[in-house]
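Weekly modeling sync, notes
Attendees: AB, CL, MP (scribe)

Item 1: holo prediction request
CL wants a bound-state model with adenosine monophosphate before deciding which constructs to order. AB pointed out that an apo prediction alone won't tell us much about the pocket. Agreed to run with the ligand included and paste results into these notes for async review.

Input as submitted:
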Amino acid sequence: MGRRKLRQRQAEEIVKKRQSEHFSLQTLRGMRDIYAHEAEEWVKVRRAVDEMAERFSFNYLETPILENLRLYLRNNKESFSVVNKEMYTFETRGGDEVALRPEITPSIVRAYLEDGMQSWRHPVKLYTFGSIFRYERPQEGRYRQAHQIDFEMIGVESSIAEAQLIQTAFAILRKLGLEDVIVEINSLGCRDCQREYQKQLKRYFSRVKPKLCEDCKRRMQKNPMRVFDCKEEKCQQELAEAPLIMDNLCKACNKHFKEVKEYLDSLAIPYRINVKLVRGLDYYTHTVFEIWKEGDEVSRQNALGGGGRYDHLVEEFGGKFTPAVGFAFGMDRLVAEMMKKKKKRGESPFVFLAQLGDKSRHQALKLFENLWEAGFPVRESFTKTSLRTQLKIAKQEKIRWVLVLGYKETIDESIIIRDQKLGLQQIVSQKELVDFLKKQRKIEEKETKELEKNRQ
Ligand code: AMP
């Protein structure tokens, strides 16, 4: 082979190698792009959250995703949170130790102190959306970059705050059509109750220690209550007889917890007491709670959200004693539930609006708007001129009703309605279109309900 040819081949190989390297660029494990089929649900969730945040007077704020590592460390070494092992940390070029936030509450408490919110009218009610990062083993519904919706009420001691947070969470779920959900609640008592209780727990553990896993042994030293979080069946068996915090609450803590339950009763919110619910964060006192899709709480996989009271965190960050309570939904999990529901319903946009010719395209633009205003989700592909292509798109999107606006229809203000399911076609006047579609929607809703009934 001549030198020129050899060089050319080498150059080609380099390009090929670069291309293959280029194509192997992928998102990191446990991280993903959110687009296409899921996108609509993400927007719906954000809208529902914004609407309910306004209804319940929560103020929007955003905090950086990168924070000083110390924000997550107690006494500069131990972590506030069970996620300490899972943190993404690194040293910046300037030598600062930083962390991608593993949760949002510490950032909000920092902002509360740093941005002078102590002088606001209390309780300070805040909410935000954002990513959290935890280097854990990815599995269904568990990501290394997860997305949370976070609500916090800072500067409130009364038990009504817990009820209001849970009420807000339920209002969001209702808005999203996720109603088969339940709250699990428990009380971890105040710091005094916890101190006394931990002594008892340690005594109990000293008897069963050899039979517990290494993780539990470590937790026993740092925060014995967290042992209840262990997923090992062997450990759970050993813990079956362990003393419970619920049986060791002082009078004031009992009263606080009783009030929370009474408020939930008044709101008719379904709840269950889980005496072993401790949650993974050290700073919780009094009420902790989790929201589960009914049935999922048995497997303890994929809670939709969780929260609790953290009366001492502001103090630990250098502020004065400021009781507070917070809650976070897993946005990925809410969206996943909505996707499941959507799949079950076989839902797709209701109508597709096709057009043929310049004149009808003008009319179609306005008709598109009118249909949305009348409450009908419409899809279109106005940039396409061929009717065949438009019908193909409608088919791909599984849309039953296709409206066709041709030259003749534009002139006499009528429209062709094609029923893709039955292969039928008819012409109605544009004035009657909305009534026609309303009637069809009612028929379809009735059919879906009957189908669901038969399935059960
Ligand atoms: P936490 O901050 O641990 O109290 O979690 C609150 C909620 O965020 C959970 O109930 C989940 O819905 C969600 N969440 C937490 N970690 C993850 C994760 N790794 N992947 C997906 N969702 C998560």
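Recorded for review: DSSP finds 15 helices and 18 strands in the chain.
Action items: CL to compare against the apo run; MP to circulate these notes.
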